[in-house]
Amino acid sequence: MKISLRWLEKFVKFDPDPERLAHCLTMAGLEVEGIEKVKGRDGLEDTVLEVGLTPNRADCLSVLGIAREVSALTGKSLKYPRFQMEERGESIENQATVALEVPDMCPRYAARLITDVKIGPSPDWLAGFLEAIGQRSINNVVDVTNYVMFELGQPLHAFDYHLLHGNRIIVRKARQGENFESIDRTKCRLHEDVLVIADADRAVALAGIMGAGNSEVNEGTSAILLECAYFQPALIRKTSKEYKIHSESSHRFERGTDPNGLQVVVDYAACLIAEVSGGKIAKGRIDLYPSPIPKAEVSLRIDRANKVLGAELKPETIKTHLERLSFSVSGAGDGTFLVSVPTFRTDITREIDLIEEIARLEGYNNIQPSMPKCAIVEPERPGLAFFKQNIKNIFAGFGFQEIITYSFINKEAYAHLQIPEESPLRNWVSIINPISQEQDVLRTVLIPSMLETVARNINAGIGDLMFFEIGKVFQSNGPGNLPDESSRLIAAVTEKTTPNLWSPNNTVRDFYSIKGAFQAFCERIHAYPSEMEPRNYPYFLPGKSFRIAIGKVKIGEMGEVHPRVIESFGIGQRVFLFEVSLDALFEKIQPVPKLQALPRFPSTLRDLSIVVKKTVLAEEIANAMKEIGGEILREVSLFDKFEGGNIPQGERSLTYSMSFRSDARTLTDGEVDHLQQKVLDGLAERFSARLR
């Protein structure tokens, strides 16, 4: 923003030294980027400051805005333009009409009519001010609209009154496919979300951005309809960006102008046009403002302001600073000011904004720096949050990679999982405005997200996968109620692995890979004993589908994903996974490991190989061995399985390692042999097992 100091002197007196003024503005947060000496048309020297503004300071995009800052910083009085309105001739209401069809897009629209104008060169004073800040002089009428815009910050537009069909202005949405050609000959094809200014037949301006060539002021213009309006900033910015048309008007409208300053601006501009063109101002003014925009009111706590600034400013000082910025301040009986913010300050909406203004006016260099007083306290991490982080560390140590997926999925995924219509897993929460139709419900289970991620990686040529995720699932509680929300853990491995230098032959993962990872995880978090029992789940392969429990409490499921599910997700290999409830698991963990004294007597190890039917689960046999062996049989672990060879079809060989130990004495071989035979007899009775 370029500011002529001669122009600025119309509003406020200041130190004539440009360097000091620049320093003053910079200390107040308005960075002066350059100072330039120029010579005006009258031969007098002028100084122009280049002021860098952040987008929130729309109020400073004018000479008046900068003058307000100088006045507030220096304490000098602020003068406003003086003009004498002289209305002659017929009333504007008898000569023109304005219809405001979209007040939400254009809250206020005002207009003046000036007749008997003569278009010609601008007087030297007018052209000189514009040229000083780098603006080209066009003609007396257009120059006035630019002059007032740069002086007061409010854009205006002058229409050739006689080129407006029906002598009408209609503020409306563009028609779909409506053609528009701007003054600079840019051609656009508009749509219904664009706001236009139109006459009875066609668009005559792209609202807030640029007028059309079909109604622009020309040498033959004899009457002017002067527009002064307020448009919604976001709308102007969107349209300007979409059609790549940027102007000084759009630059101001998209940052926010003053909706309550239009009356003075349009009257002032009309008087200047009449003065420089010899025209006559019609009686009256059209001013459509169906829903006036009120001033914002913000509470300011005096002790809060001083605490943030690290200062001890008196209430009187704070009030003076704010009033210098044209704010109205009341209250403070209870230590709180109620501040009424003028509508030209669109950036002031919160208490902290007012505190920043106080700091600017007080002067940052006048606020003594001090170290904040605070105690360093280690934050307490909630137990579940710490637990989740521990899980991530454990699985990363196992070689798994963490994935993070959206909580919303496509409800068609439940059909891919073969989940029945009556299943509670279909009790999902539908999203009213989904990102896409592929993400229309909140998930009730993590499996679809995991399988989609696996499929995406395999399709990208990455087949050796070990993934885990900690995520939320949701269960609907009916319309109008918040859903139940819980945390769950899922981990999955794919069948194929990548050969490496120390294992060049391709190996494959199986169900025991994911089971082993889960059991190792449970040992790390001291959650035992974990139990698995066969249960059929529609998304797991029968016979390799299990319910996971700790004690009698179910915490999740584990299994090999059903081939039909694999096919529906487009995965070309077997996948093994488990999913458990972290909330349930968290209740079962033992934060302090159980400590046991070292055994006083040695243990005896024996191996037992049996042949059983394939339908008998290895876990079920191990549990039975522990039950039959009693307290002396301390540990049972499966370390080998074999099928084929001399083993009959439909059967398999399982080899278990057993550890026997007594806390009272050293066991004899006879005692161990007797107990081993007892275990074998029990297995034969329960499972028809026989010694291999």
Overall helicity: 25-40%
> What is the name of the CATH topology of the largest domain?
BirA Bifunctional Protein, domain 2
Which strand order do you get reading across the main beta sheet?
A: 20-24-25-29-28-27-26
Number of domains as seen in the coordinates: 5
Poorly predicted ranges (pLDDT <50, ≥5 residues)?
none
Morphology call: elongated
Question: If helices are DSSP runs of H or I spanning 4 or more residues, what is the number of helices?
Answer: 19
CATH superfamily heading of the largest domain: Bira Bifunctional Protein, Domain 2
Distance between the termini: 94 Å
CATH architecture of the largest domain, please? 2-Layer Sandwich
CATH C-level label of the largest domain:
Alpha Beta
What's the rounded overall pLDDT mean?
A: 90
What does this structure look like?
The chain is α+β, with helices and mostly antiparallel strands. The chain has five domains: 73 residues, Phenylalanyl-tRNA Synthetase, Chain B, domain 1 (2-Layer Sandwich), CATH 3.30.56; 202 residues, Phenylalanyl-trna Synthetase, Chain B, domain 3 (Phenylalanyl-tRNA Synthetase, Chain B, domain 3, 3-Layer(bba) Sandwich); 70 residues, Phenylalanyl-tRNA Synthetase, Chain B, domain 1, CATH 3.30.56; 206 residues, Bira Bifunctional Protein, Domain 2 (BirA Bifunctional Protein, domain 2, 2-Layer Sandwich); 88 residues, Ferrodoxin-fold anticodon-binding domain (Alpha-Beta Plaits), CATH 3.30.70. The chain has 19 helices and 33 strands. The strands form eight sheets. Strands 20-24-25-29-28-27-26 form a seven-stranded mixed sheet, with helices on both faces. Strands 4, 6, 7, 14, 15 and 16 form a six-stranded mixed sheet that branches. A five-stranded mixed sheet has the order 5-8-11-12-13. A hairpin with a 5-residue loop joins strand 26 and strand 27. The longest helix has 19 residues. The mean pLDDT is 90.
